[in-house]
Queue: 2 jobs
Job 1
Amino acid sequence: MDVISIIRTKRDRGELSGEQIDWVIDAYTRGAVADEQMSALAMAILLNGMNRGEIARWTAAMIASGERMDFSSLARPTADKHSTGGVGDKITLPLAPLVAACGAAVPQLSGRGLGHTGGTLDKLESIPGWRALLSNEEMLNVLNDAGSVICAAGDGLAPADKKLYALRDVTGTVEAIPLIASSIMSKKIAEGTGSLVLDVKVGTGAFMKTLDDARELASTMVGLGTDHGVRTVALLTDMSTPLGLTAGNALEVRESVEVLAGGGPADVVDLTLALAREMLAAAGLPDADPAKALADGSAMDVWRRMIAAQGGDPDADLPVARETHVVTAPASGVLTRLDAYDVGVAAWRLGAGRARKEDPVQAGAGVSLHAKPGDSVVAGQPLLTLHTDTPERFEYALKSLEGAYDVAPAGTEFSARPIVLERVSA
Ligand code: URA
């Protein structure tokens, strides 16, 4: 095998053989294929695509690059969910304990923020003492003790994806459906969950901007999961405006705790419940009632146990940014648009995300929303509050908000996009 002929095959729109795929993934993981060669291949895949057979083999090779976890010793069925990434997407935080409170075990391997999208681990790390890095044994202990665990994937799980993902991030090759599908599904299949619900985001704040692309990504991932014996369904959900009223790490933890306490913004509650119902059905628990588990405090009990089991103090005060800046409504009327991508970039620039992989994030930084599309606003009222420890960031963050919202005259018809747009199953 030689990598140059593999790159040429894909460059010239050919189909890669199974042996070529197995070899290139293994050689890249071992360091025998260089980053510049893999980035050329990733770009050829982005431009020319892969067929379903190639994607399945690529995914299998990434799974085979590392270990596979096994939760078959647990007494409960396992269920996991994965979001393709969005702005204000804190759903994993209330969802994992909620589904555990309803009887499933939830082994939730999560990631850090990427670009303008937030990361579950960055959010949870704003809780004093909380640890993202657990050994496999610790992960199993938290799962047995609390019913759910949210932690970082260990180095042994799909190491090919770890390398390739970091490479794609800096070579403009993130947005390729075959590469996104194989990246997500290799980790989820290697993790060993019995069932999986995918939250495929669609809209300006998502990697998939159109319903057609989101549908294709969802059906590719559902097919991969099903072929590997994981009961997999996907919901296509709206990411044209931020989820809830916050984007930023500690800000989103606070909002998630409100949801677990029976309150919180309607869109966050609705999506949490929709995903919980799908996870419970896929795990063989269709009669469980997640709305009851939110209302009666049992989901909150699991949250507190899970946070404490990972070293966190569920009662600790969360960090607050040192400085704030308020953006006001330019006119009176109806807020008809508040763009998810622009708000995500603002939160990122305020310090909630990183410019380079190794940068720290600010726990208190981010954006809080005082109105959502469809709400009436009055000229001069607060529309957004920006939070940061480093006020020199305000100017750059404000630039990303120029053109981020529209206010139409009072009485303008506004029809809200439903939060769940479509469901894709095998
Ligand atoms: N999340 C992943 O894990 N991989 C991708 O490629 C995109 C989002």
Note: The longest helix spans residues 211-227.
Job 2
Amino acid sequence: MLTFEEARRVVEEQAAQVPPPATESVDLLSSPGRVLAEQVRADRDIPPFPRSTRDGYAVRCADLDKIPATLEVIGEVKAGESADRIPLAIGLGQAVSIMTGAPVPNGADAVVMVEYTERQGDRIQITKTVAHGDNIVPRGAEARQNSLLLDRGLHLTPAAIALAASVGKSQLSVYKRPCVSVLTTGDEIVDVNTDPGPTQIRNSNSYSLAAQIQQAGGEPILLPIAPDDPKELRRLIEEGLQSDLLLMTGGVSMGRYDFVEQVLSEMRAEFFFTGAKIQPGRPIVFGKCGAGGREKSGTYFFGLPGNPVSTMVTFELFARPLLDALAGQTPGKLTFLHARLKSEIRTKTGLTRFLPATLAGEFESTTVELVPWQGSGDVAATAHANCYIVIPPDRDQLSAGEWVAILPR
Ligand code: AMP
Ligand code: MG
């Protein structure tokens, strides 16, 4: 059985081979969370003029070798000043009153903050020296005209959207969202609108997965619940393989009625792994089946364990990077944050564990703590968690106060 890192690598290798989806154009306001499908370049130098970053006086710093110094104020430049009103140059012993965001006139090589000046009529007394370039961003220092600002495959964050807006892109070409079929299995599972019998369980996995898929920029398609019956399971798997990705939950463990792997084998699926040394989620299955998918060489599928917490964790660890690739996103690495552990954890070695936890406290006293839970079926406990503590397979004890890795949710 593969270790966590080995299994993750296998998914990353497959993700790197996925060709990007078709594209569509969206309004900038509808672009958050979408994946960029074009290259965005600077339409002019940024900033387009040497920009003052302070309210104050544009000066020649050589005039301030000795302070206090008194300079003659020859004009004022505000942000957006029309070009013909900007003094052509400032000379020896001269200064120009200037506002944040305004173009610095020729000849000036620094801006003194207004806090260090005292104005008397058209004279200004300056009480602090400045160095060449202080409080000025030179023309083109942030980006040169035509340079690449945002590349294809970028997940559109607020800052990326701001950059697109700053170069006049009111529409962006983005990749179409991938369709992800969700197939939940189990004779005991009933849908959310059905009154469950005494031994039945409502389907929660399809809904957590649909939420995770949407958050990752995919379109979930919920298939009917599959009974633990190979024939009916096969029919629904075939339907699910029409999508870009098929996610199944349940039926991948060692029980006598866990038919997912068996049915996929009968369908001549290619398995990349069956199981990973993790908790929760050890029975996870990853493969490709049929003649569908982007390159008609098979649709990727994951058989996620049915325990609700296992389903959520294994989606995040394994299905997510593949879904990102299917969404056209440039593959990224799985990064962990670190936080101080509030109380000791004792466990067993051998598995990489991802245990529901809460990050709490504030500022420098932020700490992380496990949520008490009844195991990987405990949705109620997990709903109150906001991260997972990651425990490496060689550790059976983590001490209070130690820095531990966490996976945010
Ligand atoms: P399985 O992986 O099929 O052995 O299921 C493991 C556990 O998860 C069992 O207790 C199931 O009842 C439960 N389970 C499976 N599928 C779902 C689902 N869609 N929603 C909620 N619980 C489920
Ligand atoms: Mg089952």
Note: The radius of gyration is 30 Å.
